[in-house]
């Protein structure tokens, strides 16, 4: 096998030196070799893609839909996205100029951040948060600014936002809002969304509103930031979580045409266009009554799982913000046990063969917590709680 010329090892983008591998993936890989390990680590729905959605993908292939689509996505899918956003959240976008179909919400994050940042620009990240935003910011020459929300039940308050704006001023390019949240499952009420919008309206800060879990809310109704601040907000969403279509890699972004036209430059020069058959499947998912029913059925099952895990772990002494959405439990390790979340998770994995993600993987405020994904079968979740209960009974420190 060839080995790189040694002198080439200095040619990389220097910002890569600031980036560490995903702590989530690294920990998952670390414990995967443990015999009989039961993993609640990754946010991967355990449902299969509904049959009518698979048929739409197959039909696209058999009808020789095999040529380049428009870079911003097929018109049919962009129209389905606009109907979805209007019907669910009262948002109005033009399919021709204000929507880009991306390769998952991941590419949407990359496209937007890369389009916005110049060297030294600050990106506000309320933490704990899905960590992908951090390396993308660093590689682009920006600086992530962490706002620890753990002192406010994992919700960014207007006061926290004002404090950051006063401190960093015009160097702030954007703020990322991810709700319902990965990792906490916490979301924002309409009043909280409106209050943040009132603060941001007086600024030139772009709001990157990652709403990929918007369809998976339980006792509350999701309210998009774009409802109150459409002129500054870029909405990110997709079908990975709502329709268990993670492998299809279809996301989308929506925003004012003047912003989207710039985003499209990075998008088209990065991936050209998403896959035709996957876009056909996403069109079916977002535009039909069957697609809506698919999500509602999955959501009901997730809610039942949430209740079971929340009640069991609370009884074991974990402090947990009750998730309003998504499919994660973010639990504070009880006193009397190992308090380092990485060491706790390792000990749990090796002694009880149960894998969870250490909370510090999600930034400041996550220390001393663990995250569990309940996107797993009820049978696996019951076994997981049996193992956790046994661990907690046998491993309390003296």
UniProtKB/TrEMBL annotation:
Domain Aminotransferase class I/classII large: 36-388
One of the record's GO molecular function terms: transaminase activity
The enzyme's E.C. designation: 2.6.1.-
InterPro entries given in the database record: Aminotransferase_I/II_large, AspAT/PAT-like, NHTrfase_class1_PyrdxlP-BS, PyrdxlP-dep_Trfase, PyrdxlP-dep_Trfase_major, PyrdxlP-dep_Trfase_small
Cofactor(s) it depends on: pyridoxal 5'-phosphate
One of the GO biological process terms: amino acid metabolic process
Keyword annotations: Aminotransferase, Pyridoxal phosphate, Transferase
Family: Belongs to the class-I pyridoxal-phosphate-dependent aminotransferase family.
UniProt-recorded name of the protein: Aminotransferase
Record lineage: Bacteria, Bacillati, Bacillota, Bacilli, Lactobacillales
